[in-house]
Backbone:
């Protein structure tokens, strides 16, 4: 079994370049979402604490079984810890044997950004020139680089209630040939933006903006509301937009749509990818990708990383499981 730490994953991403890696993930996600019916899917298992949530996210195809362990603790940053940290495993479905265990903290940011641009490819206007980022924490740069790699963006408006997070964001993205425009309010940031990506972390219901704050034709990519009682948008907005989710049974519990009902959902992302439903219909409608993060996205990124680790012999091979000559003699292993 191979182990890949966060620094192994970092090395892999640096080797290919972040934009390339995100694009590779987007293409692989498109492949996997297009064979949606071939997977065994279920809502994630969430355990809630006053401070946050810990989730287990299983997914299985014919060849591989994967799961991710991930937390969401918005207050962690006050103790110098990430809000979202994750590890994941990929196993051989045929034998049930684990193949790889790896850090998935960077990979979660990457697969989320890749899923965002995959959804946007059906929902955003292809001529989008501006992006607003609300919440400039850990996910923000990944979101920005993903959208900048797929749209001819000229301006990025951004806002966070924490000014030091805004400074960090601008510093990290200084080398992009884009105009980065710090804003003093959410309303200022989203006004006139073609795509709005919300990535705030707060363990309660927020109303970041309403329909009156955005222009016709805007695409909203809402990733921050991903838990019961944790939302970013007003309930009344949901019935006035074209709303797309990842997996309805999970989204009804965790997404913005927890404030509404299944009848407000236009499509699941897989239906757009498979062409059974149409995404954006015209240049004026407002679209919403109500993302909570789904196990198939982790399956896809684990599959890519496993294939790369295998091809380039990355990570550390360890004998995690008992190595026995006679599989019926586990006792003999104890005695050896
Ligand atoms: N949908 C998905 O697949 C997915 C994947 C990863 C993370 N997430 C969620 O995305 C959110 C962001 O994750 P992160 O890792 O960047 O967290 P983070 O804690 O690093 O950053 C969140 C930022 O939001 C800011 N913020 C909070 N309330 C705000 C408000 N009202 N207006 C503006 N800014 C505000 C905070 O100051 C912070 O800088 C979390 O809620 C996380 O659970 C979703």
Residues:
């Amino acid at each position: 079994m191979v182990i890949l730490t966060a620094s192994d994953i970092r090395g892999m991403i640096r080797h290919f370049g972040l934009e390339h890696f995100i694009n590779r993930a987007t293409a692989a996600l498109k492949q996997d979402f297009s064979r949606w019916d071939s997977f065994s899917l279920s809502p994630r298992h969430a355990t809630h604490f006053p401070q946050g949530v810990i989730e287990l996210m299983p997914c299985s195809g014919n060849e591989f079984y994967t799961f991710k362990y991930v937390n969401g603790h918005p207050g962690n940053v006050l103790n110098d810890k990430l809000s979202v940290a994750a590890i994941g495993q990929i196993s051989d479905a045929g034998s049930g044997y684990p193949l790889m265990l790896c850090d998935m903290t960077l990979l979660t940011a990457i697969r989320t950004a890749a899923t965002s641009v995959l959804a946007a490819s059906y929902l955003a206007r292809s001529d989008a020139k501006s992006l607003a980022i609300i919440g400039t924490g850990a996910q923000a740069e990944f979101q920005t680089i993903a959208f900048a790699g797929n749209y001819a963006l000229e301006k990025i408006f951004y806002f966070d209630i924490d000014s030091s997070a805004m400074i960090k964001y601008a510093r990290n993205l200084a080398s992009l040939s884009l105009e980065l425009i710090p804003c003093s309010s959410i309303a200022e940031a989203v006004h006139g933006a073609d795509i709005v990506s919300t990535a705030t972390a707060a363990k309660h219901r927020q109303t970041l903006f309403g329909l009156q704050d955005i222009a016709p034709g805007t695409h909203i990519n809402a990733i921050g509301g991903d838990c019961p009682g944790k939302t970013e948008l007003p309930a009344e907005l949901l019935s006035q937009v074209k709303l797309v989710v990842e997996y309805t049974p999970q989204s009804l519990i965790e997404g913005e749509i927890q404030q509404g009902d299944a009848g407000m959902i236009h499509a699941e992302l897989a239906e757009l990818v498979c062409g059974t439903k149409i995404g954006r219909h015209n240049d004026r409608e407002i679209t919403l990708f109500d993302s909570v993060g789904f196990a198939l996205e982790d399956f896809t990124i684990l599959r890519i990383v496993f294939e790369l680790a295998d091809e380039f012999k990355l990570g550390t091979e360890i004998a995690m499981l008992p190595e026995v000559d006679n599989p019926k003699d586990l006792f003999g292993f104890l005695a050896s």
In short: The first helix runs from residue 6 to 16. The radius of gyration is 20 Å.
